[in-house]
Amino acid sequence: MWCCSPxxxxxxxxxxxxxxxxxxxxxxxxxxxxxxxxxxxxKGSGRLQVVGVEGKRILxxxxxxxxxxxxxxxxxxxxxxxxxxxxxxxxxxxxxxxFTHLAGSIGAWKAxxxxxxxxxxxxxxxxxKIFRSKRSNDAIFFPPPNGxxxxxxxLVLDLFWSINMLTTFS
Length: 170
Hints:
Structural class: alpha+beta
CATH architecture: Sandwich
Helix content: 10-25%
Shape: globular
Largest sheet: 9 strands, antiparallel
Number of helices: 4
Number of strands: 9
CATH class: Mainly Beta
Strand content: 35-45%
Radius of gyration: 16 Å
CATH superfamily: Jelly Rolls
């Protein structure tokens, strides 16, 4: 996902190019250093969500081809592609950015017990087990959900927004 072309690297910046399949999601994540990320939507459309201090949703909007946005540092940002997919290119104001995602081996899921998840979202143990079984140790991109897993995606998104500050300040 992240790359640094020779030209971009020479001026002390980084860059990334991401292509999401239709209905896929990029894990919520944030910049843990002083890097600022300027993102240009190349193709497609989707939903962008930004969560700030104390887990408050700052922005939830539709992004589409031609949009330019600045992703605030230290705020959790996630993108979900519409059925036709979503592609973006970002310039990052440091050649070695430090990003943290709320999923994968470095995510907050490891710190939360199954019982806490069940109680927080009022779901049975079976739903929590399905959720954990879908989690991969290294994935920050999630494939499109099939019919049965759509409600699971809603659970995942709600949980990401509810616990994002736990990861941010720990």
